[in-house]
Amino acid sequence: MADEAARAELLRLRASIDNIDAALIFLLAERFRATQQVGHLKADHEMPASDPSREEQQVARLRALAVEAHLDPEFAEKWFNFVVAEVIRHHTEAAGGA
Predict the structure, then answer these.
(1) 88, 96, 97, 83: which is closest to 30 by C-alpha?
(2) How would you classify residue 96: left for phi > 0, otherwise alpha for psi between -120 and 50, otherwise beta?
(3) Domain containing residue 71
(4) Other C-beta atoms within 10 Å of 87: how many?
(5) What is the DSSP letter of 49?
(6) CATH number at residue 8
(7) pLDDT in tens, 2-59
(8) How far, in Å, CA of 13 to CA of 8, rounded?
């Protein structure tokens, strides 16, 4: 009986994780749609693909949010840096670079 209850709980938890993963994918897609618009705006106005000052502010903000959310701030920063690298790549492409 305990094994059956544990399996049911595992399935419930995994379904929750699957839903969260799906939500994250859709949120990332929405984020990239917004940053794509930023990239086109920057390209149209010959602005640099990256903005180190903005990125630094965002890292500080996201690290604070991570602490508040009981998430490792180092992980939050690594995630942000990974996403920003992809955004900058898109911005560079929009500007005609490679």
Answers:
(1) 83
(2) left
(3) 2-94
(4) 20
(5) S
(6) 1.20.59.10
(7) 799 999 999 999 999 999 999 999 999 999 999 999 988 988 999 998 899 999 999 9
(8) 9
pLDDT tens figures, 43-69:
899 999 889 999 999 999 999 999 999
Token output for 96:
């005609």
Q: At CB < 8 A and 24+ separation, what contacts does 35-42 make?
A: 35/87, 35/90, 35/91, 36/90, 36/94, 38/87, 38/91, 39/87, 39/90, 39/91, 39/93, 39/94, 39/95, 40/94, 42/91, 42/94, 42/95
Residue 1: pLDDT band (50, 70, 90) is low
How many domains does the structure of the chain reveal?
A: 1
Answer yes or no: is pLDDT of 98 > 80.
Answer: no
